[in-house]
Amino acid sequence: xxxxxxxxxxxxxxxxxxxxxxxxxxxxxxxxxxxxxxxxxxxxxxxxxxxxxxxxxxxxxxxxxxxxxxxxxxxxxxxxxxxxxxxxxxxxxxxxxxxxxxxxxxxxxxxxxxxxxxxxxxxxxxxxxxxxxxxxxxxxxxxxxxxxxxxxxxxxxxxxxxxxxxxxxxxxxxxxxxxxxxxxxxxxxxxxxxxxxxxxxxxxxxxxxxxxxxxxxxxxxxxxxxxxxxxxxxxxxxxxxxxxxxxxxxxxxx
Amino acid sequence: xxxxxxxxxxxxxxxxxxxxxxxxxxxxxxxxxxxxxxxxxxxxxxxxxxxxxxxxxxxxxxxxxxxxxxxxxxxxxxxxxxxxxxxxxxxxxxxxxxxxxxxxxxxxxxxxxxxxxxxxxxxxxxxxxxxxxxxxxxxxxxxxxxxxxxxxxxxxxxxxxxxxxxxxxxxxxxxxxxxxxxxxxxxxxxxxxxxxxxxxxxxxxxxxxxxxxxxxxxxxxxxxxxxxxxxxxxxxxxxxxxxxxxxxxxxxxx
Amino acid sequence: xxxxxxxxxxxxxxxxxxxxxxxxxxxxxxxxxxxxxxxxxxxxxxxxxxxxxxxxxxxxxxxxxxxxxxxxxxxxxxxxxxxxxxxxxxxxxxxxxxxxxxxxxxxxxxxxxxxxxxxxxxxxxxxxxxxxxxxxxxxxxxxxxxxxxxxxxxxxxxxxxxxxxxxxxxxxxxxxxxxxxxxxxxxxxxxxxxxxxxxxxxxxxxxxxxxxxxxxxxxxxxxxxxxxxxxxxxxxxxxxxxxxxxxxxxxxxx
Lengths: 254, 254, 254
Description:
Chain A has 254 residues and is α/β, with parallel strands linked by helices. The model of chain A has no long low-confidence stretch (mean pLDDT 95). At the A-B interface, helix 4, helix 5 and helix 6 of A face helix 1 and helix 6 of B.
């Protein structure tokens, strides 16, 4: 059964393979499908769970609970329902969720891999930029995504992958826009010293959304944290270079 | 749970917020997603229900019941199952369904907002045009939609919104084509004098599918009906200018 | 209810009409939606079942069972659950599934219509080509499909149909890539002499994926088999010329 019910919300997930468990959390507005090219390799010797978090993909798109705390609460219930203690691999805001989950409930998490994850959003100008982004998403969601999403990928990425990503974003709900505003004030660095779970920041060298300075600064604030840079990749290395991403993940989770 | 079962058909809907209830009915072949950019504003002080009607979106695509009477019967059961008495906001053929529902069961409807709604299809040549349209939809559905759908939007609309609409149409079923032929002979004007529910015709100034003459003629036939014109919009103002559409709806439903 | 559970996998199907039963099996990676333009005609006097087989469309995308034997086992359970004895119409690899089902369980199948079906894959070079294809699908699934899929259609096919097909392929799972490798060694011809169910090879004249030599060679190996060529069509005649395809199917299944 590919659905589970948490906090009165039906979430879609896929669950395959046996072995050490990997729980994958996609970025803003996409779905568990973003990991798909990495899975056939990993599923050979892992249990692999991909989740569409609240508001995204084939999960429900409720108007409430679209906060860091809301999604993290869903993750607690998901992990308990599946009876797993996974390495949580989160892309972009998905890495933020993974980090918050590990801070709140280290007993549920084996390891965090934060993929091109914000960690914190540099404060300079972000609040105003996000305010403007949210306005434009209301006025012309399709056009705004067409302007913005190509920037998620390293130069030279094929148009097909960009278009497929935009389509996923359009098919997800709109209530998740709330998360953007909350993220502008997100600052975990003081709390990262208390992180009781190993964390690796896996980051695309050419990420134009979250510069490498962000994971480096977060890693410096976290005992034992590592930074692993993926050459030639932008903000979504698992889609841009699935083979390199999967190999890096195997090294990290070994 | 985002599905309900009516007349042996599973319908997908979303239901959020509290307050006076708005029930949204999309146009031919799209889905409840067409309203999405209007919802974050409205859900703050309304209960908002978006329905994928029979044959569309994530609802079942049955081969039968694809008639005005069939969809209206589904709406009766939907409203009774949800225990609501909503303002029914219908786009294009969705406004026709809302009108017929209000004529048949005024006890279930608080108010009708017919958005660029056919009301009636001018008889000149429509039967022949629709016959030709249906043939072309069989021969080359994707190509026919690519020719036709841009006409739904005011000049200058971005390609992304047009493409997303075509995609939704391709993902819905084909049995709904039957509705086109039925609509060519639809003529409610003699019956509108008996409409016991307030109705507003909210119409895009530049609608090239249903000219403004249609809602004006219908409004003239209906006691107390109003026409509200949205400047600069085409056939789907809720997608072309969600902010202006939502503001107009707030005025109408106040 | 449009889902059934077979072999711990939830499969999506649609089931409409009454009369002699047609079970439609799509090709690699698409879904039951590929048949849609043929259905309004056929459903008038047939029971029509379209199935999204394991890994495709709205069915589950499990990591295992993605083999000829696995899908065929699903078909046995599907047919038994629906209590039908259908004409099985399979496109491309779907025709291979239909053939294997009829060989294994002739009691469940009235007739096979293999539409541009591989039957067997000529051995020259295919193993190497498929090995390369699978690598490219991991490295750049969207780009690889954009290069390949236009070749499925006869020259002159509109871009909208090609794009819609690519989109369906991207939305299906990736574990089904395993089927490609298995197909490279597929050779039914020695066994076709034992086929106890009537079979027709319905094939697009211009199919650039599976040349006409393949169904002709298979038909020569099968007692009573017929070949029916659709002029001007490529690999997916049911999408390229639904009207001609439906007419041919009526002749075959009469």
